[in-house]
Amino acid sequence: MSRYYIDCRSHPGDVKCTVALAADTREELLEAVVEHGRTVHGYADTPEFRNQIMQGMKEGTPPLEAETAKAA
Questions:
Q1: What is the mean pLDDT of the chain?
Q2: pTM score above 0.70
Q3: Does residue 11 have a pLDDT over 50?
Q4: Nearest-angstrom CA–CA distance, 32 and 53
Q5: What residue spans of 1-72 are helical by DSSP H?
Q6: How far is the C-alpha of 70 from the C-alpha of 38, rounded, in Å?
Q7: Of 21, 23, 31, 20, which Cα lies nearest the Cα of 1?
Q8: What contacts 57, CB < 8 A, 6 or more positions away?
C-alpha cells in the first residue's frame, strides 16, 4: 500500500511552516491538508485550492530534509 504526503517546507509562504502531512489515501490527505491550510495558513476551502493540493501530493513519505520549491 502506498502513502501520500505534502510537505509545507516545499511551499514557501508567509508562515514558515515545517509540517508534513501523510496518509494512506489521497482523500484522507486532502481533508487533512485542507484543514491545515484553512487554520494555519488562512486559505479558503475552494475547488481551486483542493485541485492544487491534489496536484501537489507525492507518493511515499516526507523526506527528512526539505525539498526546495522549484522556481517558475
A1: 89
A2: yes
A3: yes
A4: 10
A5: 26-41, 47-56
A6: 24
A7: 23
A8: 4, 5, 6, 26, 29, 30
Per the CB < 8 A criterion, the answer to whether 1 and 22 are in contact is: no
Measured in degrees and rounded to the nearest 5, phi and psi for residue 21 equal -115, 140
Task: Please name the residue that has the C-alpha cell 530534509.
Answer: 65
For residues 24 and 9, what is the distance between their CA atoms, to the nearest angstrom? Answer: 21
**Does residue 68 surpass a pLDDT of 80?**
no
CA nearest neighbour of 56 among 31, 38, 39, 33: 33
Model confidence band, residue 35 (pLDDT cutoffs 50, 70, 90): very high
